[in-house]
Amino acid sequence: VPGGFVDFAANYLHVCGLDTSGVIHCMGNVSNGALMAPTEQTFVDVEVANNITCGLDDAGSIDCWGIDVSLTGEFVQLATSEMRTCGVTVDGNIECVSHSPGASELDSVPPEEGPYQAVFLDGMGMTQCALKEDGEALCNTFVCQQYNLCDVPTP
C-alpha cells in the first residue's frame, strides 16, 4: 500500500490495517464478510475479533462488518471482541452492544458514571475495562464475583 499504514488490528483469524488515507485493508481466513472493508469510507481506527471487523470513521460513526452490529451516536474510540462491541461517545459515556449469546450481562458496564476516555475488551469479551478521564481504571470480568465490579490495582 503506497504511503504505508498507521494502525493494525489482529486476531488469530484475520488482520486489518488502516492506511494513511483512512482506508482499511484486511486479509485472513474468515468467510463471513469480516474481510470486506467498505472502500467508500475513511476511518481513524480499526478493531477486529473473530468474524467481525469494526471501524471508527472520521465522522465518529462505528461501522462493523462480518457480524451485523449497530451502535448509534458519535464516538471517539471503539473496542470489539467476540462477544460485544463498545464505543466511547463524544460526551464520555460508554455504549456497548452484544453480538454473541450470553454477552448481555456486561453491556451495562461500566457501572459508575463517567466521563470515560477509553474502553478495552479482551479478545473473547470476558473482560472489559474502562479508563475514566481522571485516570481511574474500572474493570469487570467473568471471574470477578459473577460480573461485579473488581478492584483494579492503582499505580
Brief overview:
With 155 residues, the chain is mainly beta. The chain has strands at 5-10, 14-19, 24-28, 43-49, 52-57, 62-65, 75-80, 84-89, 94-98, 116-121, 127-132, 137-141, 149-150. Helix content is 0%, strand content 45%.
Our Rg estimate from Cα atoms comes to 15 Å
**How many DSSP E strands?**
13
Strand residue content: over 45%
Oligomeric composition of the shown chains: single chain
SSE arrangement, N to C: EEEEEEEEEEEEE
Biggest β-sheet strands, sense, barrel: 4 strands, antiparallel
Shape, per Cα inertia axes: globular
Strand order of the largest sheet: 10-11-12-13
Structural class: mainly beta
Topology (SSEs and partners):
Layout: E1 5-10, E2 14-19, E3 24-28, E4 43-49, E5 52-57, E6 62-65, E7 75-80, E8 84-89, E9 94-98, E10 116-121, E11 127-132, E12 137-141, E13 149-150
Antiparallel strand pairs: 1-2, 2-3, 4-5, 5-6, 7-8, 8-9, 10-11, 11-12, 12-13
Key descriptive features of the protein:
single chain; about 160 residues; mainly beta; four-stranded antiparallel sheet; three-stranded antiparallel sheet; about 0% helix; globular
Notes on the structure:
This protein is mostly beta strands and 155 residues long. The protein is 0% helix and 45% strand. It is built from no helices and 13 strands. It has strands at 5-10, 14-19, 24-28, 43-49, 52-57, 62-65, 75-80, 84-89, 94-98, 116-121, 127-132, 137-141, 149-150. The strands form four sheets. It has a four-stranded antiparallel beta sheet, with no helix packed on it. Strands 1-2-3 form a three-stranded antiparallel beta sheet, with no helix packed on it. It is globular. The model has no long low-confidence stretch (mean pLDDT 81).
